[in-house]
Design brief:
10 helices, alpha+beta, FMN, Butyryl-CoA Dehydrogenase, subunit A, domain 3, Butyryl-Coa Dehydrogenase, subunit A, domain 1
């Protein structure tokens, strides 16, 4: 396996956010060009791994900063504002760090957290085509005599896998229970294809991964199903990171819209003002967009606090509250990202549609990422909890 040069271990939330802001500023400088050219951000992801940011959720007892969920929401939003594709790539990494935290043995934790702190991060290969739902897995997963595991089949939408030393997968064991298995990206039989062709999130590396008679040690398999035998906020945390990505996309659309209103927009003749930024209707419209982003961020913060509170005192009630808070943040961030990225065009005018400005990438990114799972189900669970006291299901999806 490829080794990585010495990676700093970030100490706390303040350091993590400072590093993230500086890194995101660098990302933003090349974001539009990478998107337009569909150029995979290999150098950028390598720099992310070298920054130490991918180790900040490792528990303190294993040497990590173990930052709060609230901090992770801000961190992910900052990265996604810099580049929505690069910002999405570590979502699966942090998700699988959490799998290890909640379901792995001490020996597995010691090994894999050591990998993370050394900069050897995780991609993912969860989704499959052809199964009845996205939560079902048909990939061949068999224990061999002696304990090794044979993996054979194809996964799709494998965000981040072209860049990662490890590719965790989901599969069903012989008892039809969900497990996670860590596959070295350079293992014989592993093929990663750069065939993602979505209109948005163009450079996430969300293509196909093929496993042809791949064999891994049993020590690389983690019984994910055990997480759901007790109250959990595991699913809420994964969804919360997705909400943060949408907040970041909304932030980016608002940022670039502000710049273009000042730089290229012309005032409407009837406004009687010298610049578009002085037009009262433009000011009002931009205030409405800013309000949507603030509302989404406030709900994101509330959700992060709810996850942290549930982790400190995990009960059925606290887990339900965290899941509902995250559902609210997801629903509002979805609306903010898609709406702000679309409506900002009208405040700039026809010039905003110039392809060279690539302002439309924010809408394309928002519309693509928010399709990850349906907003309508978030609203349904919020309503059932508020009206009928029914907690969201413990299934990892909310």
């Amino acid at each position: 396996m490829t080794t990585t040069a010495a990676v700093p271990v970030l100490a706390d939330a303040a350091e993590a956010l400072a590093v993230a802001r500086a890194f995101a500023s660098d990302l933003a400088a090349g974001d539009s060009e990478r998107d337009a050219q569909r150029r995979l951000p290999r150098a950028e992801v390598a720099a992310l791994a070298a920054s130490g940011l991918l180790g900040v959720t490792v528990p303190r007892r294993f040497g990590g900063a173990d930052v709060s969920a609230r901090t992770m929401g801000d961190l992910m939003a900052v990265l996604a504002e810099g580049d929505a594709s690069v910002g999405q790539i570590p979502q699966n990494h942090y998700f699988f760090v959490q799998v290890l935290t909640e379901a792995a043995s001490p020996e597995q934790q010691e090994f894999f957290f050591g990998e993370v702190l050394a900069g050897r991060h995780f991609g993912n290969a969860l989704s499959e085509k052809g199964t009845r739902t996205a939560a079902e897995y048909a990939i061949r997963f068999e224990r061999r005599p002696g304990g090794d595991v044979l993996i054979d089949g194809t996964k799709y939408y494998a965000t981040g896998s072209p860049f990662a030393p490890w590719i965790p997968i989901y599969a069903s064991d012989a008892g039809d229970r969900k497990v996670a298995a860590w596959v070295p990206a350079d293992a014989p039989g592993v093929t990663v294809e750069n065939d993602w062709a979505g209109m948005g999130q163009r450079t996430t590396g969300s293509g196909t991964v093929r496993f042809e008679e791949v064999v891994i040690p049993a020590a690389y398999v983690v019984p994910t199903w055990t997480i759901f035998e007790r109250p959990e906020v595991f699913g809420a945390f994964g969804n919360y990171l997705h909400a943060a990505i949408d907040v970041g996309i909304a932030d980016a659309a608002l940022r670039d819209g502000r710049d273009l209103i000042h730089r290229v927009a012309r005032p409407w003749g009837e406004a009687g003002v010298a610049s578009a930024a002085e037009d009262p209707l433009v000011v009002h419209g931009f205030g409405d967009l800013a309000l949507r982003v603030r509302a989404a961020r406030a709900l994101l913060h509330e959700a992060g606090d709810a996850i942290d509170a549930a982790r400190a005192d995990l009960t059925v009630a606290s887990a339900a509250e965290a899941s509902v808070a995250v559902a609210a943040a997801r629903a509002e961030a979805d609306t903010a990202a898609v709406g702000v990225a679309a409506d900002v065009f009208a405040l700039i005018g026809a010039r905003a549609a110039a392809d060279g400005l690539n302002l439309h990438r924010h809408w394309r990114n928002a519309r693509t990422h928010t399709l990850h799972d349906p907003r309508r189900m978030k609203i349904q669970h919020i309503g059932n909890h508020a009206l009928n006291d029914v907690p969201p299901p413990s299934n990892g999806w909310i």
